[in-house]
Design a protein that fits this description.
The protein has 207 residues and is mainly alpha-helical. It is 56% helix and 10% strand. The chain is built from eight helices and four strands. It has helices at residues 3-35, 81-88, 96-102, 115-120, 122-128, 138-152, 157-182, 185-197; strands spanning 40-46, 52-58, 106-108, 134-136. The strands form two sheets. It has a two-stranded antiparallel sheet with strand order 1-2. It has a two-stranded parallel sheet with strand order 3-4. α1 runs antiparallel to α3, α5 (122-128) crosses α7 and α6 (138-152) packs antiparallel against α7 (157-182). The two termini are 23 Å apart.
Length: 207
């Protein structure tokens, strides 16, 4: 990660932390009162091809010790009423400011993958994870809705896994690699702006 990118991350993280701490407090209390503990969901993700960390989110599902893989239609029944609202507006991702502050992820980059997919496709993710994972990114902007549509139709964990591996991993990796070839502080700012306000900052960058 370049010094300029890290300075941008830290500056935005501290500003947003100061602005959003009341929101974090309110959401935490709501989850605690409506859904009980735990308030936060910790998920092992990969920072590099061989280094893991714990990604922090607000919990949006009922707990399941056997849970694994990405979320598809097979897990829809486990999403809480509070969780549906948080997911709709991506408020469940606010705690990832902590991961940005620690340097686990950046504001912009590939979404951090689960270990199982890195182990399935080590060469592919070895290339993708040359860029620091991010809260948002080119693949998030261009493919997130399509991915959600594809996985929502899956009714079993096996179907979700097969669909994700066959139809999502290659597309997301291609977009992540395009980002990796073009990454800069200015491009990060454009992607963050597009995440907040819409638009297509990738149009001139596709290659």
């Amino acid at each position: 990660m370049s010094p300029g990118k890290r300075i941008l991350d830290l500056t935005l993280c501290l500003v947003l932390g100061l602005l959003l701490w009341p929101v974090v407090l309110v959401i935490s209390v709501l989850i605690l009162l409506r859904d009980g503990r735990p308030v936060f969901f910790l998920s092992e993700r990969m920072k590099t091809a061989d280094r893991a960390f714990l990604l922090v989110k607000f919990r949006t599902m009922t707990t399941d010790p056997q849970d694994g893989g990405v979320s598809g239609g097979d897990k829809a029944a486990r999403i809480t009423a509070t969780g549906r609202v948080l997911r709709r507006y991506r408020l469940d991702e606010i705690p990832q400011l902590w991961n940005i502050l620690k340097g686990d992820i950046s504001f912009v980059g590939p979404r951090p993958p689960l270990r199982r997919y890195v182990e399935m496709f080590p060469e592919l993710y070895g290339e993708v994870l040359r860029s620091r994972p991010g809260l948002t990114g080119l693949a998030t902007m261009m493919f997130h809705r399509r991915e959600a549509q594809l996985l929502a139709g899956c009714r079993t964990a096996e179907e979700t896994e097969a669909t994700y591996i066959r139809r999502c991993v290659p597309v997301k990796a291609r977009l992540d690699l395009i980002y990796g070839r073009n990454k800069s502080v200015c491009y990060d700012l454009a992607l963050m702006s597009a995440t907040l306000f819409g638009g297509d900052p990738a149009r001139k960058r596709r290659s």
